[in-house]
Amino acid sequence: MTVIKNTGADSTQTSWESIDWNKAKSEVMKLQVRISKATTQKRWGKVKSLQWILTHSFYAKCMAVKRVTTNQGKSTPGVDGIILKDSKAKIAMVCALRRRGYKPQPLRRIYIPKSSGNKKRPLSIPTMHDRSQQALHTLALTPVAETTADYNSYGFREKRGTADAMQRIYMITVLKRSGQWILEGDIKGCFDNISHGWLLKNVAMDHLMLSKWLEAGYVEKGGLFPTSMGTPQGSIISPCLANMALDGMETALDQAFGGLQNLSQRKVTEARRLVSKNGVKFCRYADDFIITGTSKELLENEVKPVIRRFLEERGLQLSEEKTKVTHTLEGFDFLGQNVKRYVLKRGSSKLLTKPSAKNYKTFMSNVRKVIKRMATAKQEELIRRLNPMILGWANYHRHIVAKRMYAKLDHDIWLSLWRWAARRHPNKGKRWISAKYFRTLKGDSRHFNCAVRNEHGEVETFVLASASTVKIVRHTLIAMKANPFDPEWEAYFEGRATYKMQHNKDGRQKLKALWNKQNGICPYCNEPLPKSSFQGVVYYIRSRTKGGDASFRNLKMLHRECHTEIHQMKCGKVPARVRNTQA
After folding, report:
1. DSSP 118-129
2. pLDDT number for residue 313
3. In the Cβ-directed half-sphere of 401, how many Cα atoms lie within 13 Å?
4. Contact 210, 201 (CB under 8 A)
5. pLDDT at position 579, please?
6. Alpha-helical regions (H) of 344-401
7. 182 strand-pairing partners
8. 335 conformational bin, left if phi > 0, alpha if psi -120 to 50, beta if neither
9. DSSP secondary structure, 243-298, as one string
């Protein structure tokens, strides 16, 4: 039985500044965990009841409004021209989020350039009210989407990202005995063509609200146009809906060609035999996917028809022009990186993932545009503009073979900056330009730097970031079944958070401060923690699935064994140490 109780403050809560965001996050997360559990048990009636409670919760409404007023589109209005600037407008929006009498307004249609060529992509912008409603219902839908998602889907999902997708591709192609033929799938207008009927029939959410959003229409050049298919790009809930529409592709492939996850419940030996024979493995990031196979004919004549049938049920189809089959010896691009098998001496080969040439060219083009636009800017301003760009690109590629490309990037940027400095001083010589803009640091005169005064009036050297200083750190693929809304995975996610902190400068400082706060003692067993590299594991005092955050006051550092033991007891299991004592 689902018990309905108060999950937020009452209507007397009128001040945006007085909202307890930790409590808001905690209350919302508790309901999301319950929705995930009910989804696992396939208790769809309970899922619906819990979603109703969440979407009528004051704290969930506050979280929804906070999301739309802090993201990148916070200053972009819909057709009504309204944006939420102050606290009064925000709390008024919270009070306005009601289901009864709700009618969404049409979306404002604009066009943005695609990365390839001169074509443009339609972008539909809802009003702030509609965005807030969608963000609210996304909170209720996300636990369902995470629990029912394909194991090897990585786009627009909690705790997953591009690094996981690329590591998955590497793992399924690195061995020679794996399928070396690659089907690069491209869905034709995925967001624009998803069947409304399929979404309303298969997506576990409030169908009245969903149908209103799908049929809202859009305004373009003063005209109102209906929407009979698709979910608009630009809506907060669209990525979640598109993911749910494409979930099941992995199961369809498993049923036809077998899979190591054995989703079709075959005999284990039969499943392994089919995988060995066909080599069909899958990886998807949003609406882009790749499928491996042992031969080109298998992918063209058998795999493609399975994918076509799957997509047709959802009103989608493959783009025949962009969907192609390639071999790893030719290489292929995915998410801005290139995967290719290189032939070495004596017939051996090695699979490497590198930044793609197209991605590098696009990034350098953007850097040169910035340098050109800031032709008369101060050197300090130019460095401040370029540093986040350089470090952002380098950090994106830090999990792959990128050192040579980092060096090339630093060299090309240096040449562009030298031309920038030379144009500013056409009557000055090279030595003068070098002394002014490329002052010697630690015996190296190639650093683009300048002297600036900090807030205390002290002179400091402000240096352009170097991609070559970013360390290459191999990414660990997330466990396929890991669910951030399942308490049984809490220990796993804490371990991943610790690993991330150990390989991040700010994270290492946090671990050091935590170690010092505890005087190097594990609070569970009162034994010393290893000091070298801070090898302990971070433990959330208030668990993440109960709304706990990664703030310093909510963390403890434990031995790995102690961490495992605590979580075993939380799950009602007898720890190994106790079992050994009883034996």
Report:
1. T-EEEEEE--HH
2. 95
3. 12
4. no
5. 41
6. 357-373, 379-396
7. 292, 326
8. left
9. HHHHTTHHHHHHHHH--TT-TT---HHHHHHHHHHH--EEEEETTEEEEEES-HHH
Q: How far apart are CA 496 and CA 70, in angstroms?
A: 27
Helix (H) or strand (E) holding 109: strand 107-113
Q: What are phi and psi of 276, to 5 degrees?
A: -65, -35
Q: Is 582's pLDDT higher than 70? A: no
| Structure tokens belonging to residue 289 | 């996917």
Question: Rounded to whole angstroms, how far apart are CA atoms 371 and 423?
Answer: 12
pLDDT of residue 11: 47
Judged by average pLDDT, the poorest of 112-121, 336-345, 426-435, 513-522 is: 112-121
- For residues 511-528, average pLDDT: 90
Element (H, E) at 468: none
The predicted model scores a pTM of 0.90
Please choose, from the candidates 116, 119, 10, 107, the residue with its C-alpha nearest in 3D space to the C-alpha of residue 62. Answer: 10
pLDDT of 413-434, one tens digit each?
A: 999 999 999 999 999 999 999 9
What's at 96, amino acid-wise?
A
Please give the torsion angle defined by the CA atoms of residues 85, 88, 91 and 92, in that order, rounded to the nearest 10 degrees. Answer: -100
Terminal C-alpha separation, the chain: 41
Task: Output the 3-class SS for 294-351.
Answer: CCHHHHHHHHHHHHHHHHHCCCCCECCCCCEEEECCCCEEECCEEEEEEECHHHCEEE
Rounded CA-CA distance 358/408 in Å is 14
The stretch 462-479 carries a mean pLDDT of 93
The helix (run of H) or strand (run of E) holding residue 580 is helix 576-582
Kindly tell me if the per-residue pLDDT of 96 is higher than 60.
Answer: yes
Alpha-carbon dihedral angle through residues 521, 524, 526, 527, given to the nearest 10 degrees: -70
**Residues counted in the chain:** 583
Q: Which two tokens stand for residue 405?
A: 């490309």
| Cα gap 384→463, rounded to integer Å | 9
Instruction: Say how far apart CA 323 and CA 579 lie, in whole Å.
Output: 55
Please name the residue that has the structure tokens 């190097």: 520
Q: Which amino acid is at 424?
A: R
Across the chain, what does the average pLDDT equal? 89
| Cα–Cα distance, 94 to 63 (Å, whole number) | 9
Please, are residues 374 and 329 in contact by the beta-carbon 8 Å criterion? no
Q: Is the pLDDT of residue 581 over 70?
A: no
DSSP 575: P
Phi-psi label, residue 42: left if phi above 0, alpha if psi -120 to 50, beta otherwise: left
CA 318 to each of CA 169, 224, 259, 420: distance values in angstroms, whole numbers, following the listed order: 21, 29, 23, 46
Which residues, other chains included, contact 431 with Cβ-Cβ below 8 Å and sequence gap of 6+?
A: none
| Burial (CB count within 10 angstroms: exposed 0-12, middle 13-18, buried 19+), residue 5 | exposed
pLDDT digits (tens, 9 = 90+) for 308-354: 999 999 999 998 888 999 999 999 999 999 999 999 888 889 999 99
Place of tokens 């009883």: 582
Provide the 3-class DSSP secondary structure of residue 185.
Answer: strand
